[in-house]
Amino acid sequence: MDGTPDLRDVSAPGRLAGPDEGVSTAELALAARNHGLPLEALRYDTTPPGLHYVLVHYDIPAVDGDAEGWRLTVGGRVAHPLSLELTALRERPAVTHRVTLECAGNGRARLAPRPVSQPWLVEAVGTADWTGVPLADLLAEAGVADGAVEAVFTGADHGVERGTEQDYRRSLPLPVAADPARGVLVAYAMNGAPLPPQHGYPLRLVVPGWYGMASVKWLCDVTVTDTPFTGFQQAVAYRYRQAADDPGVPVDVIAPRALMTPPGFPDFMSRTRVVRPGPVPLSGRAWSGHAPVVRVELSADGEATWTDAEVAVDPDRPWAWAAWRATWTAAPGAYTLTVRATDASGRTQPLAAPWNRGGFGNNLVQRVEVVCVE
Q1: In the prediction, which pLDDT does 64 show?
Q2: Measured between alpha carbons, how far is 148 from 275 in angstroms, rounded to an integer?
Q3: What pLDDT, on a 0 to 100 scale, did the predictor assign at position 43?
Q4: Which of 108, 128, 136, 276 could connect to 180 by a Cys-Cys bridge, CB 3.0–4.6 Å?
Q5: What torsion, rounded to 10 degrees, do the Cα atoms 298, 299, 300, 301 define?
Q6: What whole-number distance in Å separates Cα of residue 277 and Cα of residue 273?
Q7: Residue 294, Cβ density class (10 Å: 0-12 exposed, 13-18 middle, ≥19 buried)
Q8: Residue among 9, 140, 27, 138 at smallest CA distance from 72
Q9: Residue 226 near residue 77, CB atoms below 8 Å
């Protein structure tokens, strides 16, 4: 680079991969940092923290072991600003919600042309029991002023993205943030233990039903505003766009998806599954942020015909994935098993990928290559 460098020299704008462009070293480095769920871990009702997907935009902040001095401030357009130590939050009545989180970019690497970014396939998902304090309670205690429209959440992670230096910040409309029925949590525990560093220790937001970008980690501030937030992660990133100059629409609620626990056993490199002839048990998970999953279908004949699986929805855990199971009778040969979910709002996974420039919300059906051998 010539002259004095600035942030634009180290932080490139978003782009699409060329027709013959492979995954870059930079994308591989992102993939090494931000791991997905091993699909065999779909067998767990709640994902062990080390197997839950991880997406960290910048660095994991350095926080001392007991988070001494960590404070959450609640301010802006409120009557009574709050400044809460972690100990004070833990002393409040605790609430636990089982919530499935999915990265908005899940499926990005399966698009053509491929948006250059974290190259997710289908594994950017996980489900945990999150424990904390309802955000609605904190906002009610602070006293939201008339005319307020959003709550803006600031994390302690800091970096540069597409030339913009920033703390990670996102907002929620107040009808979502302040509604007790939405279940938004200020969480300090995951599966009954303190949050692991990569999952936001010591404090994070958990927004049920929304893609993971809304669940701000390392949460340190909530600011209530009377105008919509226009920060980078809200107005530039995480928008469905068809072209670079398209203002787009915001990414928000999770689209329906079903995933299959890989049957049989795998080839090391290709992950092609190998099964024996006869009845083969199939199972997996399905979820949607719009409404409960009401149907999961399977096809083993190139999607010419479909068979319904048995779906078990837990009405007491509306924000968690549902389990499904079925039996497929295998005969020697090569197959592609396809699985798709439909929710109670009528939304169904597509058979062709819904393309957009950021690679968001690609809930294309999962197709699993299986070989049945004697």
Answers
A1: 79
A2: 58
A3: 98
A4: 136
A5: 170
A6: 13
A7: middle
A8: 138
A9: yes
Alpha carbon separation from 163 to 24, 239, 240 (Å, rounded): 20, 18, 20
DSSP 209: T
Amino acid residing at 142: A
Q: How confident is the model at residue 322 (pLDDT cuts 50, 70, 90)?
A: very high
Residue with tokens 């051998």: 373
Residue 11 burial (CB count, 10 A):
14
Q: Across the strands, what pairs with 132?
A: 95, 187
**C-alpha dihedral, 27 to 29 to 34 to 39, nearest 10°:** 80
Burial 124-138 (b: 16+ CB within 10 A, else e): bbbbbbbbbbbbbeb
Q: Which amino acid is at 296?
A: V
Query: What pLDDT does 88 receive?
Result: 95
Among residues 211, 228, 229, 259, which one has the least CA distance to residue 358? 211
CA distance 41 to 123: 10
Beta bridge partners of 155: 219
Name the helix (H) or strand (E) containing 176: helix 174-177
For residues 216-227, average pLDDT: 98
Q: Has this prediction a pTM greater than 0.70? A: yes
Residue with tokens 């091993």: 38
Q: Which residue reads 């509306």 in tokens?
A: 318
Contacts of 191 (CB under 8 A, 6+ apart): 46, 48, 49, 128, 129
Picking from 159, 36, 170, the residue whose alpha carbon sits closest to that of residue 102 is 36
Q: List pLDDT tens digits, range 3-25.
A: 778 888 888 889 999 998 999 99
Q: From the CB of residue 47, how many other CB atoms can be counted at a distance below 10 Å? A: 24
Q: Residue 68 gets which letter from DSSP?
A: T
Task: Report the first-to-last Cα separation within the chain, whole angstroms.
Answer: 60
Say how many residues make up the chain. Answer: 374
> What does the alpha-carbon distance between residue 358 and residue 239 come to, in Å, rounded to a whole number?
7
For residue range 230-268, what is the model confidence (pLDDT) as tens digits?
Answer: 999 999 999 999 999 999 999 999 999 999 999 999 999
- Asked if residue 65 has pLDDT above 80, the reply is no
